[in-house]
Queue: 2 jobs
Job 1
Amino acid sequence: MSENNNAENASEEISLYQASKRIHPKWTTGFFSKLRIAAVLITQFVFFILPWFNYDGRQAVLFDIADRHFYLFGLVLLPGDLIFLSGLLFLSAFGLFWWTTIAGRLWCGYACPQTVYTEIMMWFDRFFEGDRAARLKLEKAPWDARKIRIKALKYLTIFLFCTWVGLTFIGWFSPIREVFRDFFNFSLSGTQWFAAIFYGFITFLMAHIMREQVCKYMCPYARFQSAMFDRDTLIISYDEERGEPRGIRKKNQDNQNLGDCVNCTLCVQVCPVGIDIRDGLQYECIGCAACIDACDEVMDKLGKPRGLVRYTTEAALEKEYPENKILSRMKRPRVMGYGVILAIVLVALIIGLFNRQTLRVDIIKDRGVMVRENTKGWTENSYTFRILNASDKIQVLNASVLDLEGAEITGIQKDLAILPGEPLSLPVQVAIPPEEYNSNDEGTPKKRHQKIRFVFSYHEQGDEEVRQFEEKAAFIRNID
Ligand code: SF4
Ligand code: SF4
């Protein structure tokens, strides 16, 4: 009896874990599908092709982490330029917030790498296995020779693609031509092998295996973006008032009581995250607009106006204003406020970038030798100049010293050529003659510690425009 009860209880056990089912979205054609294809082509052109561009004899875009140089065409950013990289990150993050307030999940639907690579993987699925119905059939089919051949070809292609992705990824951080040459020679460094395999594998895992699970459970942006939404944010929505009651039209029957939705479920079949847009706004929706294309096609066939599923706003759906006023709602304070902050940061960044000092000198006082008498009998202080040319051109440097009468600077030659990117350490001496030791002409005693200024003037080799800047330092007198 108790054995029977146990068996019954076991069979009634409810699993709290629900295994996810593979989603096989149906292929859509239509305006938004074309937009998504365009977004894939543009983003992948940037990712795969941009690193192959050369500028001035070097890779145009290269984030050389080992040498701590970031090249962006004519711009060379060094560790001291971190402020500009931070500014760029701020702009990207804040720009995303701003855009989300206006247009909801447009980033997710069209440009997010997760969406873009998932879309590419779905192209492979469709190319090798066919559209939704064929893929579902293949999934249920036994592992016969045909299925093995199709799967092998598909995964071989995906493997080659992910390898290409991984190698291109490291080509953003090491010269890409050398990366591909070393790959074919099997002479990539250990770090490069690791980075390429890791990135390629992550692309495969996230875009082919996990797909919508990443958006649903892993992406933090999906979680907090609702905080940026308001009633005027563009969303993809089903027009319940127009669509309901939904139902299939039957021949020779009065269909007068039915709404425009014919319950064909095409909007569900094309959804890459497997939701039904007719259930209302859901956090899983990535805003890809595939359901709009699918439903518009159905409406066209039925001879009804498009837009049963469409881009709209919550307020417009509730008839607070007509749909043609949606664009004008962009002028609301929240959007304008974000926009003004973005514009200020952008302008500041551009001004800062164009006026940034391309030659920098750090002055380090030689603590070992505070003060000494040189061969001429002058009082001498020693410094180390750490010079950095933050441009990609040779800079010609001259230095002089202020606030110290009769001072002589040695150790740095006139018109010193500084090579791009290579930090240079230079021992430099400043000396004053004996009459400058203790007092000035009026007999006023001079301080032992004096603040002095080094003046640096520099220009690009072959360019006449001279720039100048000052750096402060301390000079110690040999007071008796
Ligand atoms: S509901 Fe529509 S817009 Fe949202 S993810 Fe699914 S198909 Fe894309
Ligand atoms: S595609 Fe349009 S008509 Fe078909 S079920 Fe979806 S909303 Fe209804």
Note: The chain has two domains: 19-356, 359-476.
Job 2
Amino acid sequence: MTSCSDAEFREIEALVEVLSSSCRANREIIDEVLAKEDSHLFVARNQEGRIVGMTTVCCFTIPTGRHATIEDVVVLPECQGTGLGRKLVQAALDYLAGTGQSYKVGLTSKPARVAANALYRKMGFMQKETNVYVKSVEQTKLV
Ligand SMILES: CC(C)(COP(=O)(O)OP(=O)(O)OC[C@H]1O[C@@H](n2cnc3c(N)ncnc32)[C@H](O)[C@@H]1OP(=O)(O)O)[C@@H](O)C(=O)NCCC(=O)NCCS
């Protein structure tokens, strides 16, 4: 997906709510995702063209090689269990394979996300023993 109408933004907003009750979609951020060359938003649509699922793949290159992460895989509750989650992850993997480069692809999921963990294992992702750390960095205020 490379551009987003207001209606599509509202559909993405609904999916973000499914992902996290504490997160709200932000138009500026979605536009940034769509504009950036190293992040790619994939969507699943129903027969009416409405967005009912999405995932984002982010690519980065570091001294150990080319890496990609698959982030925020989500399908509307009423459409779950119909194969869309698998298709979204596969679309992200197919995109990477089609770039002509090799990538180490990673993703994370809380243990409580039973469906997601089952999906990733079934798709061949191997669990890695590591600690995940997060920290927010706020913008420096210019005076
Ligand atoms: C995780 C999620 C994206 C999966 O999407 P989905 O469209 O329901 O999944 P699919 O129908 O493609 O199922 C794919 C596989 O996952 C497994 N799976 C799906 N739902 C499952 C469930 N409730 N329990 C156990 N396994 C499940 C199935 O075994 C299935 O394998 P199969 O194709 O061999 O039958 C979806 O459940 C979701 O949006 N969950 C809420 C948000 C979330 O947790 N996102 C992950 C963030 S890391």
Note: Residues 18-19, 73-75, 80-86, 109, 113-116, 118-119, 122 surround coenzyme A (CB under 6 Å).
